[in-house]
Amino acid sequence: MDCHVRYAGDDDPDKCTARKLARFDLVELHRSDRATPYGVVLNPHAEQALSPADAADTETLVALDCSWESAGEARFSLPGNHRALPYLVAANPVNFGKPFRLTTVEALAAGLVILGHRPHAERLLSKFTWGETFLDLNDEPLRRYAACDDSADVVAVQGEYLDR
Fold it and tell me: What are the phi and psi torsion angles at 118 (to 5°)?
């Protein structure tokens, strides 16, 4: 699966996971909406959750790399099928343990696991000292989400974690 990032460039470049992935040729960065390819867009404002059913529609996964402070709905004007990631917790040093506060690499890796591409997710995360921790922290929910049939199933599983 091809991984692409719409790069806004408003985060600290030294901490930018998307830039690091691009240096290793693991993702392609795009600086404009028009240059970003069509695919499944990871969007926290989407009305539908990402599920394994989305894998049949595309071979392209797209994330937006921007500051959480500027990640409003307007920033996600990319073409494609917009899907929200379900409940997961961050392993990155800045937001460790916080739900829904994933870095770009964590978001892409979660999407890849849910879409059935776990080895690809592991390759992306291997470039970060805390990468394996993300998969460890989220092992059970990621496996459960990846076993779902569709978005409704993913939302139902997510509900079990939110009710805890």
Answer: -60, -45
Q: 58 labelled as ligand-binding? A: no
Question: Is 60 annotated for ligand binding?
Answer: no
64 is in an annotated binding site: yes
pLDDT at residue 70 tops 70: no
43 Cβ contact list (under 8 Å, min separation 6): 64, 76, 78, 82, 83, 84
Domain positions in the chain are 2-162
Residues 31-60 pLDDT 10s: 876 677 789 999 888 999 999 999 987 899
**What pTM was computed for the model?**
0.93
Asked whether residue 135 is marked as a ligand-binding residue, the answer is: no
